[in-house]
Amino acid sequence: MAADEISERDARHRQRMTRKKAVVDGMIAEAQQERGVLVVNTGNGKGKSSAAFGVLARSLGHGMRAAVIQFVKGRSDTGEEGFFRQVAQANPGCLVWHVSGEGFTWEIQDGVRDALAAQAAWALACGYLADRQIDLVILDEFTYALKYGWLDPAAVLAALAARPPMQHVIITGRGAPDALIEAADTVTEMTLVKHAFKAGVKAMPGLEW
């Protein structure tokens, strides 16, 4: 490529970046609210809980206090729980972690038992949602409690709306209902393109759990 072509390309790039910077700077200048944010990670793709736990690590790095309540999931041997329990032991008071599920519905096959477990977990979550000392609440796999009718959606939305002003909440799970999506500030839908499991690869420790 000739020198004059390179110079012209670089000039166009600088012009585009100058315009982009002006747009981004304007958006930053307008975003002056400071308040808690309700985040929903939904969709059929992998990464909803993993993304939430990434934010958990970020919040703890800022010295924030967090609570994790896992709905549906019943195992306590996951890598994320093991890691964060070590963090909590080294920094008492920074994190509480509850595995409150009975296992996935296709394993338990007992709707009443699932509902009771979800309701008990929600009662626990409500305590943290009312606690001004908790900066971040993660309700992992929570959407199923709404999808299957184990909880009253109106009561859930009311509790989320009434939480302390600076408290952040992250909700994960497939099939987030429209009312929850409408109430949320940030919604990400994970889209499945490929998954190793469908090719016969078993769930691998450190990657899937």
As laid out across the biggest beta sheet, the strand order is 3-2-4-5-1-6
| Average pLDDT for all residues | 90
Percent strand equals 5-15%
Describe the global form. globular
Provide a descriptive summary of the structure in words.
The chain is of the alpha/beta class and 209 residues long. The protein folds into two domains: 1-32; 36-199, 3-Layer(aba) Sandwich (Rossmann fold), CATH 3.40.50.300. The protein contains eight helices and six strands, in the order αβαβαβααβααβαβ. The chain has a six-stranded parallel sheet, sandwiched between helices. The radius of gyration is 21 Å and the shape is globular. It starts with a helix and ends in a 20-residue tail after the last strand. Residues 104-108 have low confidence and may be disordered.
Summarize the structure.
The chain has 209 residues and is an alpha/beta fold. The chain contains eight helices and six strands; from the N terminus they run αβαβαβααβααβαβ.
Produce the secondary structure layout.
Elements: H1 3-30, E1 38-42, H2 48-61, E2 66-70, H3 79-90, E3 95-99, H4 105-108, H5 111-129, E4 136-140, H6 143-147, H7 153-161, E5 168-172, H8 178-183, E6 186-189
Parallel strand pairs: 1-5, 1-6, 2-3, 2-4, 4-5
Keywords:
Rossmann fold, about 210 residues, 8 helices, alpha/beta
